[in-house]
Amino acid sequence: MKIMVAVKRVIDYAVKIRVKADKSGVETTNVKMAMNPFCEIALEEALRLREAGHAKEVVVVSMGGPQCAETLRTGLAMGADRAIHVSTTELLHPLTVAKLLRGLAESEKPNMLLLGKQAIDDDANQTGQMIAGLLHWPQGTFASKVAMEKGSDSVVVEREVDGGLESLKLQLPAVITADLRLNQPRYATLPNIMKAKKKPISQVTPEQLGVKISRDLEIVEVIEPPKRKAGVMVASVDELLDKLKNEARVI
Amino acid sequence: MHPARRAADGLVRARLLGRWSWPLSFDCSINRAAQRDALVSHRRLCTNRARCLNKEYASVNEGFFWTPEAEIGSLLKRHVKHQIRRFATSTKVNRNSRFDSLKTNDMEHFKSIVGAKGVIVDKDELVAANTDWMHKYQGHSQILLRPQTTQQVSEIITYCNSRNLAVVPQGGNTGLVGGSVPVFDEVIVNLGAMNKIIEFDEVSGILVCEAGCILENLDNFIGGKGFTMPLDLGAKGSCQIGGNVSTNAGGLRLLRYGSLHGNVLGLEVVLADGEVVNMLGTLVKDNTGYDMKQLFIGSEGTLGVVTKVSLLVPAKLGSVNTAFFACEDYTSCQNVLKEAKRQLGEILSAFEFIDRPALDMALTHLPGTRDPLPQSGKNFYLLIETTGSNETHDKEKLDAFLESTMEKGFVADGVVAQDSTQAASFWQIREGISEALGKAGAVYKYDFSLSPEHFYKIVEDLRDRLGSDAVVVGYGHLGDGNVHLNVSAREYKDELLEKVEPYVFEWVAKHKGSVSAEHGLGLMKPHALHYSKSAEAIALMERFKALLDPKGILNPYKVLPGTSKTVSTPASALNAESAVVV
Fold first, then answer.
1. Labelling A78: which of A70, A108, B142, B456 has CA 20 to 30 A away?
2. What are the residue boundaries of the Electron transfer flavoprotein alpha/beta-subunit N-terminal domain, all occurrences included (chain A) (predicted)?
3. DSSP class of residue B560?
């Protein structure tokens, strides 16, 4: 079985985000970038499935400018066999990404598509669901556990939903998106980092996949959330009641 | 009873050495003058830790090695002029009777200086201020003052000087040698309320702030403007910059940004007579006269109270890489250090060493830690960090370094952090070892500077010496040659301590190392100062102390061995004729 994992290059989780002065987006120059944490978890799950013998090959895919190569190297260093870089300098939104992935799925023919549930820069949480719809594949999103029987062609996915945990059995090929508690991603070890340098990254363009990139969303403005106002110390319970009644108007 | 002590009792009866009497039981009271003693109480080390902080040293230069097992006979053979140290089972420092005690009108006077809010007599707050971070030392001060301005500090100190009241300057109280808490009833002057940032020049990177600013807050403030503090230590959430400067704190980034002696551009200090000395320059180069501020950096509050600091801060660079290596043996670690300095060069920003017992300690006692190399099975680990301005350039250098260290076999296994969360998990281990040791039980903590070849030898030698009595753990700043040697046992025991000290001090002295690399001397190590500094150097220090603080009111009983004496001739500490044992 071949597993394809789609990963995204985002601003590192721990970096303090700053909004650009012209409100068109956030500062990304000279800011530390990394693989999206949920994508890391998805990749880790794919590697574990391969190690358990359920999969033969793990292919990691990313889309964007030349810096995506770094993220793909990270993926290869973690243990993926091959990487595919869809090179484009256009800004990509979830639907476009889903269409590109459909093109790749049609050429690569993976049996399972693993993605992070959402990216930490746009928090869209759409790509996995969209690609499942485009491919007409079953989907198990917000996965917190993925289990496969040896030799079977179905996968059991435990999902974290508002009401608790839901178990779904999906017929392969299927789309699974990873949630936080699925696993703890491995560190990239030195020998693997060295090996990753020799693993191939193939370049593909959107035209080769038959996708025309169109802007279906327009970012109007990006502003910082309003600053939290400082709390006020009250001197007595009467003053508190007065403020709750007259200022906050909650009683 | 320990053979040394038994023999000592015999000596008392024999009265062979008429000038002193040997300890009778737990009592080291040799000073015949009526002096008020107070036993320094230790919460965790109460039955063990100690020596009399007396003026008696064995001069290492004379080739004297005191071991606990030394026969009393051989002790007698020592030249009478050489002074001998003894062990009692409790630290005993006699309160210097020159210092007066707090009276009611003193309280009133302080209230008039700092206001009622600045005088704290609340029991719980006092206990916290009287106890050090390791819960090893507890003083009995009745009053905590929190001045808000330098003028108030000056008035407080002037008053205390005139009234012969001893003073302990206090910052974040995170020191590890008992230097920040009172020994007896000294007045605690806590600078935490003086936490204003006065100015910050974003072009030159020069920060001017008050001494009570917390290090992490300063780091966050200048971080927003693209700069970072030149020092980083585990205590950053609590320690204050005034205390950092007064103790010449080192930390994890000294390798890259140098020590505070280089980064501090100016200070404002209050001397023991209350005089405010403004040396708050903001110039990187200023060769006008003697650089007096250097005296106060590292003097642990015994020469003056730091009230304002002017600091040169480096730019915060965006490309940070962190790697965790496993090495076969200690020689490989040294080789990795050489390679790192050559190949990583200017981007190297931290080089930390952790041995297997230290790693196990951290993984066992700290929740949420993860072994970065679970399959390695090696005994030596390195945490290396690079910081640079260009990610591509740094990655290339790092890759070349990784390849060459792997090829040459210096590194057996390793991982590189792929994002800041992974990097933080590596640092969590290294920065948490101290806390983990505290949780594991009793710990004897040492902090030595040694040349790279001896850095780990002392750990191995002590391990052989102690055998199964305790777990000896070694970790530290290998890049600076600073090893943190810790002995972890289930409980504090006399016999164990006697096997450790003065063996480790003598070992360090023999190899020309420092008995306190970055922690300072505080209350814990004045008796060990002579292992690392010559008698003349110590005498010079005593002269400065007498010059700047003739009454000895600033942080008494600490740092210098001679400061708990009642005299004005500090050099007499080493003069056998006038030696007084306190």
1. A108
2. 23-213
3. S
User: How many domains are contained in chain A?
Assistant: 1
- Does residue B406 sit at the A interface (CB-CB below 8 Å)? yes
Of B413, B415, B419, the CB nearest to A35: B419
B403 contacts in A (CB within 8 Å)? 194
Contact state of B416 with A12 under an 8 Å Cβ cutoff: no
- Dig out the tokens for B102 from the structure: 């707090």
| Helix B503-510 × helix B457-466 angle, to 10° | 150
Distance CA B180, CA B497 (A): 24
CA distance B371 to chain A (A): 10
Q: Would the CB atoms of A194 and B406 count as touching at under 8 Å?
A: yes
- The pair of structure tokens assigned to B262 is 């280089």
- Residue A188 falls within a domain, yes or no? yes
Q: Can you tell me which residue has the tokens 């935490």?
A: B192
Report the predicted TM-score, pTM, of the whole model to 2 decimal places.
0.79
- Please tell me the distance in Å from A32's CA to the nearest CA on chain B: 6
- DSSP-derived pairing of the beta strands A57-64 and A174-178: unpaired
CA distance B383 to B326: 9
* Nearest-CB residue to A12 (from B403, B406, B419): B419
Best residue in B221, B387, B398, B419 to probe A by mutation, most A CBs within 10 Å? B419
pLDDT in tens, A91-145: 899 999 999 999 999 999 999 999 999 999 999 999 999 999 999 999 999 999 9
Q: Please, which residues bridge with residue B325 across strands?
A: B382, B414
Sorted by where each starts, the structural domains of chain B and their CATH numbers stand as: 1-316+535-582 (3.30.465.10), 319-510 (3.30.70.2190)
Contact status, residue A137 vs residue A155, Cβ threshold 8 Å = no
Answer for the pair B467, B346: CB distance below 8 angstroms, yes or no: no
Given the structure tokens 């013998």, which residue do they identify? A53
ipTM over 0.90: no
Per-residue tokens: A61: 């895919």
Domain range holding A68? Answer: 2-226
* 8 Å CB contact of A13 and B395: no
The per-residue pLDDT for A250 is: 87
CA pair distance B315, B256, nearest whole angstrom: 12
Q: By C-alpha distance, which of B95, B2, B94, B96 is closest to B48? A: B2
Is B299 within 8 Å of B246 (Cβ atoms)?
yes
Which pair of tokens denotes residue B444? 């004897």
Residue written as token pair 């929190």:
B146
Say which CATH number the domain at A171 has: 3.40.50.620
CB–CB of A32 and B418 under 8 A? Answer: no
The reply to whether A70 touches chain B by the CB within 8 Å rule is yes
